[in-house]
Amino acid sequence: MVQGHVDLVAVCENVKETNGSWEFHFTYSEDSGMMTVPKGSICVNGVSLTVVESAIGKFSVYIIPYTMEHTNFRMIQKGDFVNLEFDIIGKYVQRYMQSLHK
To answer: Is 49 in contact with 41 (CB distance < 8 Å)?
Structure first.
C-alpha cells in the first residue's frame, strides 16, 4: 500500500531484458532505515510494483511489456535517479519494532 509520497531517491544500477520482460536493479542509502522484502510492495516513480530480490539498500523488480509501454519505465536507464515510496504497512511495522528496542 502506497500513498503517493516520496521517501527516498534511488539509483538504477542495471536494466536487463529477460524472457520478454525487464529486470531493474536499484540501490538506495543503506543507512536510510528503509527496507524492502521479497514479494513486498515498492513504488518507483509512482508505479507500484512487487519486489523480486531484496537486500539492505538494494532491490530488484521485473517489468512486463504492458508496464514498460504504459509507464515511465521505458525511459529509465542505468545511472538514472528514481523516486521511491516504501510500503506504508512495512513502515508501520518497522517503526513499531524500533519502539520495542528503546
So the answer is: yes
3 within domain boundaries: no
Read off the pLDDT band of 100 (50, 70, 90). confident
Domain contains 59: yes
The grid coordinates of residue 44 equal 518507483
- Relative to beta strand 58-63, strand 81-86 is unpaired
Q: Three cell numbers at 13?
A: 544500477
Which helix (H) or strand (E) segment holds residue 38: the answer is none
Half-sphere exposure of 43 (CA within 13 A, CB side): 18
Average pLDDT of the chain to the nearest whole number: 88
Element (H, E) at 90: helix 88-100
